[in-house]
């Protein structure tokens, strides 16, 4: 399916405001939605006369790795997001070539689930290995999105000298993209947001020019976002590739990560040892005991594994095995309880635990309210946005209110998405409003309010506007409010989770026997 300028705009607005890059789109609960954010509403936002001399702030999110190190993600303000999306739409003819980039394994494309960019491979590094291949190189770009120098976007498109000659050209599409990216993040020139689909496109635009340079040098390689894989017939060829890549990136003020650059002599294992060992554990059927053993073995394997790969592999495998309707709830409960215990210490397990418990009924969730609140307080206190939002979503979706201490901890955390979820129920709505009242005592500039725009917006949707907030700030939401759009919908389903699949593994046999409507509207 081929993309078009209008499809790019429609799909970015509907699917890519919140981070949804993972293959199953489950970085955060499915209740965060923008399905009703249409091109027409974007036009109304862009027609507003409200000025922002200091640019816009962003909502900061954190997802957590096995070692508790955070991955920082961001959500853009809807008005600046609309402007970036519109800029990409009107310049589609200038950058649409990236859809056909043969060197990118995760290309911008029209996916059946509605997204145009996701961790869905369209090529494999294994395909690079042919008879005569002797060495491979893996090269990672240091802090890719966070280190992008926005002025380097025109450099990548036109070349440095030509871009400098066009520097004052206010009609040049790359210059305009540079301007809008800066406006989206407080007019900063270093770094673009990780999470929005617009950033994925910008990254592909920049690196497609690097890819083209490397292909002209006859290098055999593939790129997975910011990871390069090369295969050649000698170590000299591999070293040449690393050097050529390093030089091309340096022109754009990007750098190769020295700790994640490695040249290896072939043959090399196609799958890491931990994955092969975990697969052995599942041989002979997938009983509940084997699934629990798989989790335990993944934890033991983690020390020597690549980041959090082993536990993530086990979690996807377990969730897949428990998906069929034929699985007894008793089995789900036993595995879910084990994952809650692990999830207190390893927050990457919480999403899986919550999705499993979502299948066992509200009464079983209510019975675990004490444990869930205890885990929630641990994670929200450490601003682990992913784990905290999954727990709050599980509780509210099943009609279970948060404990008073949990609500207080959510508000104290200052973490936008968990606070915004409090607006979904009348029991906690006032707590979210009191957060805004307290925050306004600082007399924050507009770009600081933007760090909580979702809270301000959802409260406004519930007719709870603070008198301390300037009218211009709410005015930037008015087209969305007029359309009765909610960016949080507890009834929304995950449209990207059509078939759970463990990495490089087929379906596993079973074990055991809203679209953004205003929830406050009448």
Question: Could you characterize the architecture of this molecule?
Answer:
With 522 residues, the chain is an alpha+beta fold. The chain is built from 25 helices and 6 strands. It has a 4-stranded antiparallel sheet with strand order 4-5-3-6, covered by helices on one side. Strands 1-2 form a two-stranded antiparallel ribbon. Helix 3 runs antiparallel to helix 8, helix 15 runs parallel beside helix 18 and helix 17 runs parallel beside helix 19.
What count of helical segments does DSSP give?
A: 25
The structure class reads alpha+beta
Q: Would you count the extended β strands for me?
A: 6
Instruction: State which percent range the strand residues make up.
Output: 5-15%
Rounded to the nearest angstrom, the distance between the terminal CA atoms is 40 Å
* Main beta-sheet annotation: 4 strands, antiparallel
């Amino acid at each position: 399916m081929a993309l078009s300028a209008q499809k790019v705009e429609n799909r970015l607005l509907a699917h890519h405001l919140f981070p949804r890059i993972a293959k199953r789109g489950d970085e955060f609960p499915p209740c965060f939605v923008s399905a009703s954010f249409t091109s027409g509403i974007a036009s109304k936002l862009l027609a507003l006369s409200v000025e922002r001399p200091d640019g816009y702030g962003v909502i900061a999110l954190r997802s957590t790795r096995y070692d508790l190190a955070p991955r920082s993600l961001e959500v853009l303000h809807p008005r600046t997001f609309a402007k970036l999306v519109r800029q990409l739409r009107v310049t589609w003819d200038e950058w649409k070539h990236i859809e056909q980039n043969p060197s990118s394994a995760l290309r911008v494309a029209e996916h059946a689930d509605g997204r145009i960019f996701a961790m869905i491979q369209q090529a494999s590094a294994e395909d690079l290995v042919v008879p005569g291949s002797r060495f491979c190189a893996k090269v990672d770009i240091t802090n890719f999105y966070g280190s992008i120098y926005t002025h380097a976007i025109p450099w990548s498109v036109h070349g440095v000298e030509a871009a400098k000659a066009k520097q004052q050209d206010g009609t040049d599409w790359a210059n305009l993209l540079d301007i809008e990216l800066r406006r989206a993040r407080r007019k900063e020139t270093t770094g673009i947001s990780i999470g929005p689909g617009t950033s994925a496109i910008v990254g592909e635009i920049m690196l497609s020019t690097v890819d083209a340079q490397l292909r002209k040098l006859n290098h055999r390689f593939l790129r997975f976002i910011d990871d390069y894989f090369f295969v050649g017939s000698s170590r000299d060829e591999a070293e040449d590739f690393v050097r050529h890549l390093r030089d091309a990136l340096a022109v754009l003020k990007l750098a190769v990560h020295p700790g994640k650059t490695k040249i290896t002599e072939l043959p090399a294992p196609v799958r890491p040892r931990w994955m092969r060992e975990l697969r052995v554990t599942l041989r002979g059927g997938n009983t509940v005991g084997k699934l629990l053993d798989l989790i335990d073995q993944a934890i033991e394997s983690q020390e020597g594994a690549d980041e959090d790969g082993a536990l993530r592999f086990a979690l996807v495998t377990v969730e897949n095995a428990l998906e069929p309707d034929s699985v007894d709830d008793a089995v789900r409960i036993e595995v879910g309880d084990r994952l809650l215990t692990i999830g207190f210490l390893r927050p990457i397990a919480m999403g899986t635990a919550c999705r499993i418990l979502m299948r066992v009924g509200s009464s079983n969730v209510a019975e675990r309210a004490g444990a869930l609140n205890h885990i929630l307080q641990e994670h929200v206190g450490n601003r682990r946005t992913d784990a905290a939002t999954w727990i709050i979503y599980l509780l509210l979706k099943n009609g279970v209110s948060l404990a008073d201490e949990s609500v207080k901890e959510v508000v104290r955390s200052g973490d936008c998405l968990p606070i915004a979820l409090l607006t979904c129920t009348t029991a906690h709505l006032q707590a979210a409003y009191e957060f805004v009242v307290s925050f306004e005592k600082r007399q924050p500039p507009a770009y600081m309010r933007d760090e909580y725009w979702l809270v301000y917006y959802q409260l406004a949707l519930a007719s709870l506007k603070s008198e301390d907030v300037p009218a211009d700030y709410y005015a930037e939401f008015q087209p969305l409010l007029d359309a009765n759009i909610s960016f949080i919908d507890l009834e929304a389903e995950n449209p990207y989770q059509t078939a759970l699949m463990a990495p490089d593994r087929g379906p596993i046999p079973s074990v055991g026997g809203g679209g953004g409507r205003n929830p406050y509207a009448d």
